[in-house]
Specification:
The complex is a heterodimer of chains A (about 70) and B (about 180). By secondary structure, chain A is mostly helical. Chain A has a domain of about 45 residues. Chain A is elongated, with a radius of gyration of 16 Å. The model of chain A has no long low-confidence stretch (mean pLDDT about 90). By secondary structure, chain B is α+β, with helices and mostly antiparallel strands. Chain B folds into 2 domains: about 100 residues, PH-domain like (Roll), CATH 2.30.29; about 60 residues. In chain B, about 50% of the residues lie in helices and about 25% in strands. Chain B contains 5 helices and 7 strands. In chain B, the strands form 2 sheets. In chain B, strands 1-2-3-4 form a 4-stranded antiparallel β-sheet. In chain B, strands 5-6-7 form a 3-stranded antiparallel β-sheet. The radius of gyration of chain B is 24 Å and the shape is elongated. The model of chain B has no long low-confidence stretch (mean pLDDT about 85). The chains are: A mainly alpha (about 70), B alpha+beta (about 180). Chains A and B meet through helix 1 and helix 2 of A and helix 3 of B.
Chain lengths: ~70, ~180
């Protein structure tokens, strides 16, 4: 059975998005529990979210062209 | 937050962290890792890409894989930043709290009363440590049951040692004269 690159890309994208979501929750937990308060947590999490969103949306854009 | 877990009348005097140079090295390595596929592509012969497209891996698919690669390094950078930032030594007017954040889910907290410190060693080893002002600070304890606290790559260890000594002096004088408020 030959698997198309689109299927492989879909599986990889699903893993990446799921893993990133889990990591975001883990980071949020650490920064809230042990971190630098609400403002520090907000700054870290917003910068992480912006970078992650840009990369995921770009990957999604390329995936749509496959 | 650590301030919620302090005893009454206990105040944070200083927070010692690893020097930023250690985090900068990690960022540099991750940047190289992120750019590695692009650099490698320059040296891969065009025939290799042709054979890849024959098995169904188009250039768009390779770009997609590279995007995921960058996403992975971005995530690793934030894990590094979190472990770097949360790996601290908090000096209060009573004790030293050694928070050893080894990985995202690997954390060890050791507490050492200031009175138990017998000796301190500052070890600045090598060109980079001398230039950037970081090194190892070792706090030797009196009892065998209390392990020594080793602060590796501490920023400005001599300054940190002076602050700890000052706090220890205050703690010892408060112990011998309980009416004196520290």
């Amino acid at each position: 059975m030959v698997v198309s690159s689109g299927t492989v890309a879909f599986v990889l994208l699903a893993f990446a998005a799921g893993g990133t979501l889990l990591l975001a929750l883990a980071l949020y937990y650490h920064w809230v529990r042990y971190g630098v308060g609400i403002i520090g947590t907000f700054i870290v999490m917003v910068s992480y979210a912006i970078g992650t969103a840009v990369l995921l949306i770009s990957a999604l854009g390329v995936f749509a062209q496959l | 937050m650590i301030s919620d877990r302090l005893d009454p009348n206990e105040e944070v005097v200083t927070v010692i962290r690893k020097h930023w140079f250690m985090f900068a090295i990690q960022v540099f390595i991750l940047s190289v890792v992120a750019l590695f596929p692009l650099l490698a592509a320059l040296f891969i012969p065009a025939t290799a890409f042709e054979s890849l497209s024959q098995i169904g891996a188009s250039s768009t698919f390779l770009v997609f894989l590279y995007m995921l690669w960058v996403l992975m390094t971005w995530n690793l950078a934030f894990i590094s930043w979190t472990t770097y930032y949360l790996d601290t030594w908090i000096v209060t007017n009573r004790r030293i709290i050694d928070i050893d954040q080894r990985a995202l889910f690997q954390r060890k907290v050791t507490t050492l009363m200031l009175e138990k410190i017998q000796d301190m060693t500052v070890d600045v080893d090598g060109l980079f440590q001398t230039l950037f002002g970081f090194g190892t600070l070792i706090l030797h304890t009196a009892g065998a049951e209390d392990p020594d606290i080793v602060i590796r790559y501490a920023a400005y260890p001599q300054h940190a040692k002076d602050r700890i000594l000052e706090c220890q002096r205050h703690a010892l004088s408060a112990e011998s004269h309980p009416s004196v408020k520290v």
